[in-house]
# Entry
Amino acid sequence: MLIKTICYTLMLSFLLNVQHSFAQKQKNTAEFDANIPKQYTRLINTLIMKSGISPTSAARIHGYVGLALYESINAGSPTYRSMAKQLNGFNAPPSPTLPLLWDVVADETMHAVSDSLFSYIYSTLADYNYIRKALDTLQTRHKTSFKNRYKNNKSVEESVKFGRKMASYIYQYSKTDGGHRESMDETASRDYRHYQAPEGSSWDDTKTRAGISVQPTWGKNRTFIKGIYAQTKPADPIPFSKDLNSDFYKQAMELYEMTRELTFEQRLIAEYWRDDITVTYTPGGHTIHILVNALEKEKASLDKFAYAYAKTSIALNDAFVCCWETKYTTNCIRPITYIKELIDKRFKPSFFTPQFPEYTSGHSTQWGASTEILTSIFGNEYAFTDQTDYLRDKLVPRQFKSFEEAAQEASVSRMYAGVHFRQACEVGLEQGKRIGRIVNKLNWIK
# Structure
């Protein structure tokens, strides 16, 4: 009997030691590097560019991928807390059964939610499975690494299962925001159609290509922050007038004279921040790329990356929704229409004027929001060089002493290009900053 007791005690001690040893090997999210989300984020930008996704939709994709990554790993973070009950309609995301392998969770979550969010454009791509192949190829590399690194298949399986569960939850949440599209046909019918401006409005989209307005209902989408538009709504634009002594005419004349006397540097700035669809990551994607480069430079951990990405992308999404609500509420006329009719019919902006109302500037609003977020993460005087991929072979990388400096330059670039009046840029920048401050005030830290 004594021998049996001793044997049982030794066996129990051995099992407890093994369990303790296994538990000790489980790292929290601050101990993982950010290589996996960094690769996915850069791939998402590339897919957005190659697919010709609009700036508003691109910001939305980043918003939900960022939230999915953040929520999937914050249970393993010593620093960051869930956004449950802090975001609009986001109440009960899945909770994991610990311990999990957080790099595996991050990989599965980002792969699955990205696949779902991009799924509506599959049928129109020249290569039907281009996006899915790109995502699968990246994940296959990660799985090979996991196979060599982790011998406990059960832990890998549980981590994959939770990642899929979180991705599914976030995707279902995204489908109720007003921005979800089932197909490209639905996208065309809802987002790229003729818009009849209200009677008395100065906006006239018949002067733009094919009379098509871009996403006239996007401003009605659910934002991540409940009521954020009401909290950040800008003042009305300068009243429309054709009177040569009016403030509206004066701002048009200011822009006209500015564009006639642009320096080489100003022309370069206009081109640098152009951020067109199909050939760039879009304005928000450009900002995300700058963020990722800064996080890579700082050797950010997995949870720091998730926090920074979620915070920035949530602000970007809400900035574009608020901007679009402002645009189609105020219905302000574009410089190209007003200046050609009243000042100089030969007036020609540096590049094509987008097909939506003037006020406020999307570039300015999203950068206003971004600079508040990025400054809160990296500091007021964080110097950086923007070496965004699609600019590398065309334009010299630009250096900035702070994110505020970059925001100011991106905003004024739209005046240099001749596509926005001053008020749209300056007011948009301030509107975005108010949005960013609200996102910063969320309870991110445990």
About this structure: The two ends are 52 Å apart (CA to CA). Residues 6-24 have pLDDT under 50 and may be disordered. The beta strands are 192-193, 213-214, 384-386, 398-400.
